[in-house]
Amino acid sequence: MQKINKKYTFITALFLMMFTFIFAQDEYIVNHSKFMQKTNPSYFGLNSLNKTGVLYNQMKLNEFDKMDNKYVFGALSFDNLDFSLGLDVNSFKIQNTGLTINLANLSYVYKLQFDNDLYFLPAVTLGFGSQSVNPENLIFEDQLNTATGFINTESIDPLAPVISNVNYLDLGASFLLHSDRFMAGLTLKHLNKPNTSYNKEVPFEKPIQISLQGAYEFDLNPYERRYLPRYSYLFAYGSFTKFGDAVLIYLSQDFQLGEFSVGLSQQAASLNTFALNNVGVSVGLAVENFDFGVLYNFPFQSPGAVFSPSIFELFVTFDFSIYRRNRRGQYNRLQTDNYY
């Protein structure tokens, strides 16, 4: 047995809070505008690009614990058949609690052309999720002895041996309408309401998640003035996500100044009395067909908020499309030049 320590009690409480938060927000990636397929899988088919990329971020929960997030994706276009395939895998782990969540999604995106510069991309997504936790890192109620101030090493709670791992299938659909200036999207996730409970006798179904997205790209230097690089753009993006009682609002403003980029992001989320507010700053560099980027999210504690983390994010993407290298200097995000 060991003496009750505020650190371990806090970690246990934090685990329960983060467990709820993770399921409310799904895969947590801050840079939505560079990885829009996380919010809307139809983005895998935008401009029929063949791309791949990796991302790593670390969320500092407190002085005792961190959450590591690893993400990889790939998009392959079959433009002569009017469809694209997208695959992404997300894995993240809370270190001290031993909670690990792995999510893999395969998306089929179909392309419809409405006119010379307007495209509609509906998509269906099949996902597979698994999550596991180490019960030895958890403290159950029957282990706490408030009279003596000790924690028993073993628990007789019937849930203790049950909490280990769970696997589930996840279905989704998405829609994206875009030109070379604007984008509008709708995403429906967890259509089959997968049961993610460790104890199947007490189901815990994910509610259907609904998300709306919109973006517009401004040409900041249409007359090629010398005070800005020739190809300079502002990509303004926003999304609204509803998941059960949880709400997430995300806004970003990305300035592409030639091969360099700098961006700002703001997000706020709520889950009953839980609130999260962050402001992020990102910088990026485009070299040939590569894009490199780094982002840091500053916590902003609003009145009444329980928790607001700091987040560091690093990513690189590569564009395999054979004609993109010669047109790389344009740098605008909403392009239609690569459609067949």
Describe the structure.
By secondary structure, the chain is mainly β. The protein has a single domain, classed as Porin (Beta Barrel), CATH 2.40.160. It has one helix and 18 strands. The strands form two sheets. The chain has a 14-stranded antiparallel barrel. Strands 1-9-8 form a three-stranded antiparallel sheet, with no helix packed on it.
Characterize this entry briefly:
The chain is mostly beta strands.
Keyphrases for this structure?
single chain, 340 residues, mainly beta, Porin, 14-stranded antiparallel barrel, 3-stranded antiparallel β-sheet, 1 helix, 18 strands, 51% strand
Helix content: under 10%
Q: Strand count, sense and closure of the main sheet?
A: 14 strands, antiparallel, barrel
Please tell me how large the radius of gyration is: 22 Å
Order of helices and strands: EHEEEEEEEEEEEEEEEEE
> Which CATH architecture is right?
Beta Barrel
Strand elements, count: 18
Work out the oligomeric state of the chains in this entry: single chain
State the separation between the terminal residues, measured CA to CA: 68 Å
How many alpha or pi helices? 1
| Unreliably modeled segments | 1-25, 142-151
What's the level 1 CATH class? Mainly Beta
- Average residue pLDDT: 79
Number of structurally distinct domains:
1
Main sheet: strand order? 2-3-4-5-7-10-11-12-13-14-15-16-17-18
Name the shape in a single word: globular
Percentage of residues in strands: over 45%
Task: Return the CATH topology.
Answer: Porin
CATH superfamily: monomeric porin ompg
* Secondary-structure class: mainly beta
